């Protein structure tokens, strides 16, 4: 299917690895030119070079912390008026809420709620003026089925979801959609970090926990970043203009409810 995105421009945050990289790769395959951000310059430049070589699109990079004012300013200076915005940021660390002080909570909210909202605010009106815009927020399956040790992420990402639920209904008449992808277990560094954390608490090895988690998923495996990226590309497509305010759960069927 031709997604109608050739020649568009996308800003993909935290796009050097994991789910962000999957989204960047899939958009590039559709002919989208990219600006990708990440904290680590080495991985960022390596991903940019890989995308250029594989798909032949223009890829610009911005190294910095997208959760900081300076990082956001640099990203928007490089891509002030994208057709597509993919909001992504590493989740806050796991732990026990009894150990989290106010500063810890503020940092989580800044990274996974406030930063996406500020980026949306910066780009949504030009999208409305052009009568095309696609915004995809990468949140978490924990928005629907909270994970106890990920309380910081549960809270911040659910706050973003609630905000978008209202905004998305006001922009869609201008062909600007805002949706979220809710990943379950995907093969990423973040997933491995969670196994490492739980291994320290449980007395089991991270490898044992990984095997058990994969076996417990109805699919019998973890998702791939390529699958995730392709779902993102479709939500950004011309054909997806009637889809907004939705939270697409991608978890291999792990969520047990009737309405996913």
Q: How would you portray this structure in words?
A:
It is globular and about 55 Å long. The model has no long low-confidence stretch (mean pLDDT 95). It has 260 residues and is of the alpha/beta class. The chain has a 7-stranded parallel beta sheet, sandwiched between helices. The chain has 8 helices and 7 strands; from the N terminus they run βαβαβαβαβαβαααβ. Helix 1 runs parallel beside helix 2 (41-55), helix 1 (18-29) crosses helix 8 (225-235) and helix 4 (102-130) packs parallel to helix 5. The longest helix has 29 residues, at 102-130.
So what's the overall shape? globular
Whole-number mean pLDDT = 95
Major sheet summary line: 7 strands, parallel
Low-confidence segments: none
Question: What is the element string, with H for helices and E for strands?
Answer: EHEHEHEHEHEHHHE
Tally of DSSP β-strands: 7
Q: Structural class, please?
A: alpha/beta
- What's the N-to-C terminus distance? 25 Å
Question: Biggest sheet, strands in spatial order?
Answer: 3-2-1-4-5-6-7
Portion in beta strands: 5-15%
Helix percentage range = 40-55%
Number of helices: 8
Q: Measured on Cα atoms, how large is the radius of gyration?
A: 18 Å
